[in-house]
Amino acid sequence: MSPNSHASPNLSQMIFVNMPVNDLSRSMQFFQKLGYQFNAQFTNDQAACMVISDTIYVMLLTKPFFQSFTSKAICDTSNTVEMLVCLSSPSRAAVDQLVGKAVMAGGKCPKSPVDCGYMYQRAFEDLDGHIWEVIWMDPAHVQ
Fold first, then answer.
1. pTM summary value
2. Same domain (yes/no): 63, 79
């Protein structure tokens, strides 16, 4: 496919983000405090399937289980970044609410909010140092 061609998106495509965690039970409790649920069918003592939406899932994996999928070292999130996960939010208030819940549950705010007027963004670090960005964009500006 050339860089200038545009493939039609597969609207039923799903994403499963896999993240290593130190303590699976503690991580599950953290995300439950943020309002997320887990799919019991794909959750056991090595992995938990967190449901973000109908098409977005986060697999929280114990580090030994995560390591079984790669020959590369797992990064130390206390001083390196492996990726940034960005979630859309329906409003500015919802951005603040989710980040507030994360901080109350033991997470950290790695930076100050970014307010561009048409876009509002905040971030939090979960218990394992993964960075989650939460963003609201004015629908009128997106169009």
1. 0.86
2. no
- Tens digit of each residue's pLDDT (9 = 90 or more) over 19-28: 999 999 999 9
Total structural domains in the chain? 2
Give yes or no: residues 84 and 59 share one domain. no
Sequence-distant (≥ 6) Cβ neighbours of residue 6 within 8 angstroms: none
122: containing domain = 75-143
Question: Could you give the strand order of the β-sheet that contains 47-51, starting from the edge strand earlier in sequence?
Answer: 15-21, 56-62, 47-51, 37-39
Q: How many alpha carbons lie under 13 Å from residue 82 in its C-beta half-sphere?
A: 17
